[in-house]
Design goal:
The protein has helices spanning 3-28, 31-38, 42-48, 52-68, 80-91, 94-106, 115-137, 147-167, 174-186, 191-194. The protein is mainly α. Mean pLDDT is 86; it is low at 70-74 and 191-195.
């Protein structure tokens, strides 16, 4: 099989895995269900991914590749205004957001195979958010926090909005809510009226 064909088949499997995990969660997703969705036997799927855990990590890494634009260093190179674009982009791909959110929620248990991935990922994301905030505000935000203090809060808003939107997309406009948060951030917590 050619390298291009192998990569194409891996991409098909990852798409199928995303769909199955979004529908059933990681624990409910079976290799057999993913293989069937991808048009393979389970044995055929194991040729590409030797275990369910290997498939899970590949799914998570693929999702991050989409968000980083395929940068080999995994860094996103975000600016605060580009985060707004990411939120809008995520609103157009609910299946991916649902899969990520389900896996994130499940990963907080000690034995979950994605726990190490998410722990490492959040360390990196908090660092990147601190860089984004430092580039925008310098060493202190308008409210007095350092970029390192505000980075976990920014990260929490991004992920928290995703959960709220997934639960009630009619009531939560993720992109608008994030823009409101940016207004608060830029105004030092005083809000638009106090700016």
């Amino acid at each position: 099989m050619t390298r291009a064909r192998t990569e194409e088949r891996r991409a098909d499997i990852l798409r199928a895995a995303l769909e199955v995990i979004a529908e059933r969660g990681y624990r409910g997703a079976t290799l057999g269900a993913v293989a069937e969705r991808a048009g393979l036997t389970q044995q055929g799927l194991l040729h590409y991914f030797p275990s369910k855990e290997a498939l899970l990590v590949a799914v998570l890494e693929e999702r991050d590749q989409w968000d980083t634009g395929g940068r080999s260093d995994g860094r996103r190179g975000w600016r605060l205004d580009l985060l707004d674009s990411l939120v809008e982009y995520n609103a157009m791909r609910p299946g991916i957001v649902q899969t990520f959110s389900a896996l994130l929620g499940e990963s907080v248990t000690e034995s979950h195979p994605a726990r190490e991935f998410f722990t490492r990922r959040y360390t990196q994301v908090r660092g990147e958010m601190a860089e984004v905030l430092r580039a925008e505000f310098g060493d202190r935000l308008p409210g007095g926090l350092t970029p390192e203090q505000a980075a976990p809060l920014l990260t929490a808003v991004l992920d928290g909005l995703q959960y709220q939107w997934l639960l009630d997309p009619e009531a939560v406009d993720m992109a608008a809510a994030f823009r409101d948060f940016l207004t608060l951030l830029r105004a030092g917590g005083a809000g638009a009226a106090g700016a």
